[in-house]
Amino acid sequence: MKFEIKHWIDGGVLFSIETESLKLAVEAAVKNGANLRGANLAEANLNGADLRGANLRGANLAGANLAEANLAEANLAGANLAGANLRGANLAEANLNGANLVGAYLSGAYLRGAQGLEKFPIQIGAHKHWLITTQDGKLKIGCHVYSFAQWEKHADAIGEKEGYSPLDIKIYKLHIAHIRKVSELLWKAKDLAQRQQREAGADGNPETSAPAKEGA
Predict the structure, then answer these.
(1) Which phi and psi angles does 55 have, rounded to 5°?
(2) Cβ–Cβ contacts within 10 Å for residue 215, how many?
(3) How much is the pTM?
(4) In which domain, by residue range, is 129 found?
(5) What CATH number does residue 31 fall under?
């Protein structure tokens, strides 16, 4: 079966191949050094794909399944990864500057050395709207994005405006307090790990790489 990987804006063909699945087509493109900048891979099933070093700058990967994928050293700058499943993915040394990670699932992802994740996203699926932290350290609930301090100050007013019941507001205020504590703990741990990594590099010690995927 022939698979074509096209640009998400102009529809131009970036790579084509006769193979058995889109996953194999994308892996072949990467293996052959194809430039997949701006590729339209929204909703693609790339579970476990070996995409190490891929150029996916500005690609549309919204809703894609990238669980357990090897994206080490991949260029994902400006890519749309909204809602993507990145569970257990290897993103070591990947370039994520400007990438849209709203709603992306990053549980178990390996992020050592990844660029552009100063505040990696944390999310809670609550009973009305999701709570998702942003890359600049703010909190998004529904369509509202504010700092934690602003949420704590104005949660009642925003909740009432959105038609939340008093019980809904009480529950969401608990969620806000919880995700703030969790984010502070995790982000501080990441900052410490990065500082230790820089210090180890300054001492001339080799950095530990993520384990290679089997069969890679």
Answers:
(1) -95, 95
(2) 6
(3) 0.64
(4) 119-216
(5) 2.160.20.80
